[in-house]
Amino acid sequence: MQFFFEVLIGGLLAGVMYSLVALGFVLVYKASGVFNFAQGAMVFFAALTTVGFISMGAPFWLAVALALAAMAALAIFTERVVLRPLVNQPQITLFMATIGLSFFIEGIAQLTWGAQVHALDLGIADEPIEWLMGKTGMNISKFDLVASGIAAALVAVLAVFFNKTRTGRALRAVADDHQAALAVGISLQRIWVIVWMVAGFVALVTGLLWGARNGVQFALTFLALKALPVLILGGFESIAGAIVGGLIVGASEKLAEVYVGPYVGGGIESWFPYVLALAFLLVRPEGLFGERRIDRV
Amino acid sequence: MPADRKIGAAILEIDGISLAFGGVVALQGVSFDVREHEIRAIIGPNGAGKSSMLNVINGVYHPQQGTVAFKGRRRRSVDPHQAAQQGIARTFQNIALFRGMTVLDNIMTGRNLKMKSNFLQQAVYWGAARREELEHRARVETVIDFLEIQHIRKTPVGRLPYGLQKRVELARALAAEPELLLLDEPMAGMNLEEKQDMSRFILDVNDQMGTSIVLIEHDMSVVMDLSDRVVVLDYGRKIADGTPDEVRSNKGVIDAYLGVAH
Amino acid sequence: MFYREAGQFKSTYAADQQLFPIRQDRIGMAILLAVAFAGVPLAAATPMLAGAIDFNYWFSGMLIPFLIFSLAALGLNILTGYAGQLSLGTAAFMAVGAFAAYNFELRLPGIPMLLSFVLAGIVAALIGIVFGLPSLRIKGFYLAVATLAAQFFVVWALTKFGWLSNYSSSGVITAQKLVVFGYAVDTPVKRYLLVLAIVSVMALAAKNMVRSATGRAWMAVRDMDVAAEVVGIPMMKTKLLAFAISSFYCGVAGALYAFAYLGTVEPAGFDLDLSFRVLFMIIVGGVGSILGSFLGAAFIVLLPIFMDLWATSIERSFGFALPAGLVSNLTLILFGALIVFFLVVEPLGLARLWQIAKEKLRLWPFPH
Q1: Which of C37, C75, C142, C296 is the most exposed place for a label (fewest CB within 10 A)?
Q2: Would residue C368 count as lying in a domain?
Q3: What is the residue range of A210's domain?
C-alpha cells in the first residue's frame, strides 16, 4: 500500500511538471486561439540560454534575466513574422506554422549554444525528504515538492493576472472574439506580444525546473507532445484544467507503467497518455474543464 | 401559375414537431403538410424557427417530439444522409458550397449518391468508372444549362459573387433530382433582377421537373407570386396555414409582423 | 506563345475529362516519362557519363528516396490534403508496411514479392482504419492526437513484440533481397526502375480516385462536412476510406523504404520526426495536390543533400572545418523558416506556384 502511495505521489509530482508545460499552451490558446506547438522548443531555448550564460560566467540571476529578455525578443519576433501575416487563417494553418517555428527555434538554440547536455543546478537537492522517510518510509523527493510549490505559485499569479487585471481582461476578450476585441479598441498585436512573453516566462520557469531535474537537452522539446494529452483532459482553455490534467496524466502514466507495464514488457509511458486522451476525446471532447462548442448551421 | 400543373396528395407530413436546444425552444407543436408538386412557403419574423424546421425535415436537427412522414414513411428523425437518399435536397441560408472545388465538381457531388462504382474501379478509371463519370457529367450539364452557369463551370466557387454562388448551390441540389426541394432564403441578398431570375428558375423547376418545393422567404411579393400555400411561424408556433391570400389577411399574421405584443 | 490552347477545342465530355487536356501538357508528360523510364537508365549505362557522374549515388541517394517519399507524401496528402483529416502518424503506417512485408516474406516462402508489398499495404490500411475510427467523433487537431497515439503505440508495439522482428534486439530487421518475377533486383538502376514503376502506377491510381466521386466526397468532407452529409455523402465510409487508402500508400512506401532503400530498418527509425518530414513535404509541395506531393518530396529530400554539398564545398574552398552540427542546425532553421514562409506566402505550396507559372506561360510573351 505504501508503495502505491509512493508511486502515486511521485506520479502526481511528475504531473505537476507536465502541468507547467501545459500552462504555457493554455495561455497562448486562451488569448489567441493558436495551439503553440513551439512551446516545447521555447522551454528548451529558455533553459539552454540560461545555462549558456551561466557557463559564460554570469551569475544565476543575471543569466535568468538575460534569458527572460531573449524570450521577450522571441515573442516580438514571433508576433511579427508568424502571427501577424497569418491573422485570419484557420487554426490548422497556425498550428502548422508553430510546428515550423519550433524547428526554427530548436535550430537557433543549438546553433548558439551547442548541442551537448548541460547540467543545471538550482540549489535544491533531488533527495528524499528525511522526516517523511523516517516516519512513513516513503521516498519523496525534496525537489519535486519544491517544484510543485513553484508551480502552484505560478498558477496563482497567472489566475490573478487573468481575472483581476485590465490586461488579463483584454486577453480574455481577444480569446473570445478577435473582431469584437478590435471593435472595442484592443490592439491585437500588442496583446499577442504580451501573451507570448508571458508564455515565454512560463517556458523559462518550466525549462529551469525540468532542466534541473533531467539536464538541459534536446529531449526537452518533446515536452510539447506530452502536454497534448494533458490539454485534452483538462480542456485547452482552462488553467485549472492544465493543472488537473497534468496531475492525472502524471499519476496514471506512472501507475500504468508500474502495475501494467511488467505484463507487456514495459515502456508503456511512451503511448499511454495519448491513448488515455484518445479514450477521453471519444467520451468528452471538450475536456474536464473546457467549454462545449455548439455549431450553428 | 399554369392550370395544368396537378397538385397531388401530401408528400410530406409534419406532425407535432417540438425542438429545443437546452433552454431555448425553437419549435413547439408545429404541424402542416406539403402536397406533391406544390410550392409551399414558410414565412415568419426572424427567429420564428423557419430554418430549424427545414433542418428537422432533412435530419440536421433531431426534434424531441413529433414525427416527419416523407412519402408515407413516418419517423422521429433521420440522418441527413438518409434524407438525401430518400429524395430530399436543400440549400442553406449561408451558402454551404465546397470552397475548395470548382462549380462543376460542386454540382457533381450532388450526383455522388447515384454513383455506384467503388474506389477500386475509380482508381483504374478506364471502364465502368469512366462511363459512369461521363454519364453523370451529361446530367449535370443539363442542370448547368438550365441555370445558365456554363461560363463559370471551371471556376473555384470561392471566387464567385454571392448571387452566382446561390445559383450553384441550387444547381447542386437539383443535380440530385430530388422529389422534395428545401430552399432556405434563396433570394437573400439579391437585387431585383437576380430575384426575378431566381423566381423564374424556381418556377421552372416546379413546372418542368415536378419537384415539390418548400421555401423560406422574407420578400412578401415573391412569396405571394410563387407559392401555392403558405405556413406562418412565430416564436416556434404555427399561427396560420393557407393560400397566400388567406394568410395575407389573417390578423394574427399581421400582428406578428408588426410586432404587436401577444 | 508555345503554351497556347488555341485550336484545342473539346467537343466531348470525355475529351474534357482527360488527365491532360492541353496537348502541350500531354507532350510534356510523355517526355518526362520517357526520360524517367528510359533516358536516365540509358545515360547511366553509357561509359562516358558513368565515369563522370556517380549514378549509383544519384539512384540510391536521391532518386529512390525521392520516389519513396513521394509515395508517402501522396498517402498523407490523400488523408490530410484531400480529406482534411490531420495526421501526425505517417511514419507509423510506413513502419507497419515495412514490418508486414518483412514478415510475409519471412513466413510465406515463395510468395511473390509484389504480393508481399500489396499485402503489407493492406495490413497498414487495416491499422489505419482502426486509428481512423476516432475521426468519426473528433475533428481538427484533436484528431492529430489520435494519430500521435498511433505513432507512439505502433513504434512501441513493433519493438516490444519480438515475433514481429523475428526476435532481433531492439526490433531491427534486414529486408530480404528483392526478387521480382524471378529477376534479382540488385543494382541501383534496377531498384530505381522497380520503385519508379510502382510509384507511377500508384500515382496514376491516386489521380484517378481524386478526380472521381471518391475524391469529391473527400474534398466535400474536408470543406464542409455538414453540407456533405446533406448532399448524401456517407461520413463514416468516406473518412475511413481515406484513412485506409492513405495508410495503404504509406504502408507500401514503408515496405519500399526497407526493401529498396535502406535495407535495414528498426521501429525507432520510423519516429515522429519522419512523420513531420512527410507533413512538411505536403505543406511545401501543396496540400490537396498530386503534383504537390512529388514537388514537396523532391524539395525536402534534396534540401539536406544540397546543404551538405554546400557545406563541403565551403570547407574545401576555405580550407577549414565547419563546427560539428552546424549544417544540421542550419537545415532545421531553414526547414522551420520555409514552413512558415510557405504558409504565409503560398499556402497551396509549390503546386500552386507551378499552376501560376503555367498560367503566365499561356500568356507569354504578353503580360495579360
Answers
A1: C37
A2: no
A3: 2-219
Quote the minimal CA–CA distance from C327 to chain A in Å: 9
Q: Give me the mean pLDDT over the B80-98 stretch.
A: 91
Q: Do C209 and B123 touch (CB under 8 A)?
A: yes
Q: What are phi and psi of B194, to 5 degrees?
A: -65, -35
**A80 found inside a domain:** yes
B250 in reach of chain C (CB within 8 A): no
Cell matching residue A229: 494529452
Peptide bond into C365 cis (omega under 30): yes
Domains: count for chain C:
2
Per-residue pLDDT, A151: 81
Q: Is residue A233 part of a domain?
A: no
Same-domain status, C218 and C295: yes
What sign for the dihedral angle of Cα B35, B39, B43, B47?
Answer: positive
The angle formed by the CA atoms of residues C350, C352 and C356, to the nearest 5 degrees, is 115
The domain defined by B1-87+180-262 folds into Rossmann fold (3.40.50)
C233–B113 CB contact, under 8 Å: yes
| Helix (H) or strand (E) segment spanning residue B24 | strand B24-35
Which residues of chain A make contact with C160, given a CB cutoff of 8 A?
Answer: 264-267
* CA-CA-CA-CA torsion sign (B51, B52, B58, B61): positive
Q: Which residues of chain C have a CB within 8 Å of the CB of B172?
A: 231
Decide if A254 contacts A10 (C-beta within 8 A).
Answer: yes
* Three-class DSSP category at B237: strand
- C1 shares its domain with C144: no
Residue in the structure block whose three cell numbers are 513535404: C281
A169-176 long-range CB contacts below 8 Å, 24 or more apart?
A171/A30, A171/A31, A171/A195, A172/A30, A172/A31, A174/A31, A174/A32, A175/A29, A175/A30, A175/A31, A175/A32, A175/A33, A175/A237
Domains: count for chain A:
1
Is A108 strand, coil or helix? Answer: helix
**Could you tell me the residue ranges of all domains in chain B?**
1-87+180-262, 99-177
Of the listed ranges A114-118, B159-163, C40-44, C236-240, the one predicted with least confidence: A114-118
B124 touches chain C (CB under 8 A): yes
Cα–Cα–Cα angle for A73, A76, A82, rounded to 5 degrees: 125
Q: In the predicted model, what is the mean pLDDT of residues B116-123?
A: 90
| Predicted TM-score (pTM) above 0.80 | yes
Please tell me whether residues C128 and C30 are part of one structural domain: no
Which of chain B's residues have a Cβ under 8 Å away from the Cβ of A297? 51, 55, 60, 92
CB atoms A285 and C335 under 8 Å:
no
Can you give the residue range of the structural domain that contains C345? 57-363
Q: Are residues C196 and C331 in the same domain?
A: yes
CB contact residues (below 8 A), chain B span 1-30, against chain A: 21
Residues linked to residue B216 through DSSP beta bridges, in sequence order: B42, B184
- The string over A175-187, giving b where at least 16 C-beta atoms fall within 10 Å of a residue's C-beta and e elsewhere, is beebeebeeeebe
pLDDT band of B261, cuts 50, 70, 90: low
Nearest to B119 among C13, C214, C223 (CB): C214
- What digits encode the pLDDT tens for the residues A161-188? 877 888 888 887 877 777 777 788 888 8
The answer to the question of residue A285 being in a domain is: no
Instruction: Name the residue among A146, A150, A156 with its Cα closest to residue A239.
Output: A156
Selected for mutation to probe chain C from A37, A79, A281, A295 (highest C CB count within 10 Å) is A281
